[in-house]
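Task card 7
Instruction: Convert sequence to structure tokens.
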Amino acid sequence: MLYHGQMLNVLEVVEKLKERLAHDVAVVEGSRQELDGLKEVAQRIVDEKQARAILGKNPAFETDYRNLRKESKYSRSETISLRAFMEEYLRVVREAKVGDIVAFLQAIGVGYAKRQTVEAAIKRNPHDLKVTRRNGQKFVSLVSGRG
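Output:
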């Protein structure tokens, strides 16, 4: 469904997001059940690594948790949340003007969604979000294969 002058109703988008969320909940529940089955194995692995670290003082078994935060692509929660909201919206509408994205995000309660923050998120994620210009207007869509 391409953008041709009319924005989808906010309620339609919210309903589609609810459907997607329900699907995601089912997937997460299935994953949780699978992980519950692996807890015993994981605990044995942890116990073994702890025993080796204590006995051998081997630095290979120690974890530097400070580096995990630096390596994570989710360290800036507001920006990531904004991008995630944008990606979910663009999965539904396929293509939208920046102003329409801002209007939708503010309508669903994302208060920090301003034109400047949306533009910045688009510039920081050129591998995820594609900008197309037609008739002097800027349209944003997901890069093929992402939606």
